[in-house]
Amino acid sequence: MPTLNWIGKEQIINHHNDVPFRVLERKYTFGEIRNEKLGIRNVDDCGDQISNSTFQISNSKIIHGDNLEALKALLPEYEGRIKCIYIDPPYNTGNSPDKGGWVYYDNVDSPKLRKWFGQVVGKELDDLSRHDKWLCMMYPRLMLLKKLLSDDGAMFISIDDNEQGNLLNICQSIFGVSNVEQYIWCLQDKSESSFVKTAGLTVRKEHEYIIACFKGNVKFKKYEGKRDFADNIKDNPDNDPRGPWFSGNISRNGIKTTTGSKYYTITNPAGESFSRNWTLTKEEYEEALKDNRIYFAKNGAGVPRLKIFPQSNSELIQSSLFTDVHTSITGKNELKEIFGESPFPFPKPTTLIVRLMQLITDPDSIILDSFAGSGTTAHAVLNLNKADGGNRKFILVEMEDYAETITAERVKRVIDGYGDTEGTGGSFDFYELGEPVFDADGNLNENIGTEKIREYIWFSEIRNEKLGIRNVDDCDSQISNSSFQISNSQYFLGKYLGTAYYFYYEKDQITTLDKAFLNTITQRAEQYVIYADNCLLSAEFMQANHIIFKKIPRDVKKL
Predict the structure, then answer these.
(1) Strand, coil or helix: what is 64?
(2) What is the fold, at CATH topology level, of the domain defined by 9-228+326-436?
(3) How far is Cα 508 from Cα 510, in angstroms, rounded to an integer?
(4) What are phi and psi of 534, to 5 degrees?
C-alpha cells in the first residue's frame, strides 16, 4: 500500500500518546434515569463489592470540549467498549461562519484548531496546505477512536471528494487495508447535488462516501426492517403494481471461475447473451424472472437487474450503495421541526445513522460520535431505542460553543417531544472537560480532587475487563441511579474478579504500605493490589499473601 506523507506528519504521528488525560466534570443530568443497573455487566461473582466511591454509572453523555482531549478522557472507562462509532468530520470545503450561512468551520481554520496546530506542529504551520492541516487534525483522533472501538465493532465516517482519498489512505494505514470498506450514500434529491468542473467537463456530484473501519472480521447483521425511501423517490418505470422499487446489481464480474451454480448464461429480450457469475443461482434467477423481479432497459437490452421493493429483505442490503435512507434535505426538515429552522446547512438524516446502527449494534451497545454537530447521532439512537425497545447509550463530543444551545438542546427536545412528535424518553449527562489528571511533572494533579483520582485509578485498572454488572438483583452490591455507593475502607476502590484494589493516598502526607495498614483491611480476596507512596513489606511476604504493591505516581497507568 502506498504511504501517504504530508507536512506535519512527523510531529503528529504519535501525538495521541501525548494528549493529556483530563477529567470529565458533570454539569447536570437531563431526563429520567431508569433503575436498570446501568453500565454494569459480566461479573462472575455477584458477591463482589464494587466501590465505596461515587464513580458514575455509565449513562449517555454529551461532552463539550476538544474532541481529541475528550476521546483521551474516555479511554479509562470505555477503551474497547464502543460497538459503533459514527463521525461526520469537516469535509474541508473551506466554508465557515466568516463566509456566512454556516455555524461551524467546515475546514481546519477555527480559532481553537489554529491554536492547537501552533502548539503541536510548530513553526511548520505556515507551510501547511489545507490538506496537510486536515490530515494533522484527523490522524490522532482516528488513533484514539481505534482504541475505543470494540473488537466486534465498526466505525463509519462520512466524507466527500475533498478528502475522501486522503481519509481512505490513513484509515487503511491505521486499521489495515483488509479492515477498511467504502460505501456510497446517494444524494437522491437533485437540489442537493453540486456541480464540479474539471478539465472542462462539468459533472453533477450526487453522492458522498461512508468509509467503514474494523479491527478484525466483523459480520454485519441482516437488516430486517422496512426500507425507508426518500419522500421524493417515485421509481417505478414499468408501473409495477407492487409500487416503487430500485434495482440491484446481480452481476459478479470480479469472480473469474466458470463453474458452479452461479455461473450460467442469461439472454435478454434484445437477444444479447451474458455468461458470467451472478449473485443468484439459475433457479433463483428464473424464479425472480417469473415473479417480474428482473428488469431490463425499456428496449430489453443490457445486463439484468434485480427489482428491490421497500418491503423486501434483500440479500443486497450489505451492498456498497446506500440509496434508500433519505438525504440531508430530510435532515434539514428534522431540524426545522425541532428548532423552527435548520442551523446546519447539510445535516445527516437520522435514518442514515439508524441504518448503520442496525447493521452492527446490539440493544445495549454504546454509540460514539466525536464530531457531534447538531446531535443527529443521539437523535438516531433514541429513535432506534424507542422502535425496538433497546437500551443503547450514546456519547457525543462537540468542541464548539453550540454544544449546549444546539447539540444538547436538540437531544432534550427529542427526549421530551417536539411539535406533533412524541418524545422518545431517555436521559443523558452533560459534561465539560476539566483539568488534567497528571501535572506537567507527571505527578497526580491534586487539584482535581481525591475522588476524581480514585475514579481514574479504578477504571485504568479494570478497563480491560469491561467494567460492569448486569442483572445483579440478588447481589449484595447496592447501586444508586447515579453512582456506586458501597462502604468499606476509605482507601478501598473495589473488588473485581477476585482482586481487591486499594488506593492508599493522602493529599498532604506520605503513605506507607506496611503491616499496620494491612490490619485495617477487612475485605477478603484472592489477590490485593495496593497503591501507596512507599512499601515496607518484603517481596517474600507479599508473594506469600498475594499482594501487589504499586508506587504512586510511578505505577499509575498513563493510557
Answers:
(1) strand
(2) Rossmann fold (3.40.50)
(3) 7
(4) -140, 165
- What confidence tens digit (pLDDT) does each residue in 512-559 have? 999 999 999 988 899 999 999 999 999 999 999 999 999 998 888 776
Provide CB contacts within 8 A for 474, sequence distance 6+. Answer: 46
215: Cβ–Cβ under 8 A, 6 or more apart, which residues?
Answer: 146, 149, 150, 151, 153, 175, 179
CA-based Rg of the chain, rounded to a whole angstrom? 27
Which conformational region is residue 175 in: left (phi greater than 0), alpha (psi within -120 to 50 degrees), or beta? alpha
- Provide the greatest CA pair distance for the chain: 94
Residues in the chain: 559
Closest CA to 466 of 180, 153, 29, 219: 153
Tell me the C-alpha to C-alpha distance, in Å, between residue 310 and each of 175, 207, 228, 351. 34, 21, 7, 14
Residues 6+ apart with CB under 8 A from 113: 105, 133, 137
Its pTM stands at 0.70
pLDDT in tens, 225-254: 444 433 333 467 778 887 777 777 787 655
Closest CA to 518 of 553, 498, 555, 544: 544
What nine digits make up the cell of 116?
492547537
Exposed, middle or buried by CB within 10 Å (0-12, 13-18, 19+), for 440? Answer: exposed
Q: What are phi and psi of 542, to 5 degrees?
A: -65, -40
| Interval 166-197: pLDDT, tens | 999 999 999 999 899 998 887 655 445 555 55
SS3 label, residue 544: helix
Beta strand 305-308 pairing with 246-249: antiparallel
Please, what sign has the CA dihedral across residues 512, 515, 517, 518? Answer: positive
Which DSSP letter does residue 412 get?
H
The domain ranges of the chain are 9-228+326-436, 246-316
Residue with cell 451474458: 274
Q: What are phi and psi of 6, to 5 degrees?
A: -155, 160
What 8-state DSSP symbol labels residue 406?
Answer: I
| Listed residue (140, 67, 98, 37) closest to 482, CA to CA | 37
Question: What amino acid is encoded at 201 in this protein?
Answer: L
C-alpha to C-alpha distance for 487 and 105, rounded to whole angstroms: 48
360, HSE (Cβ side, Cα atoms, 13 Å): 25
Cell numbers found for residue 142: 482516528
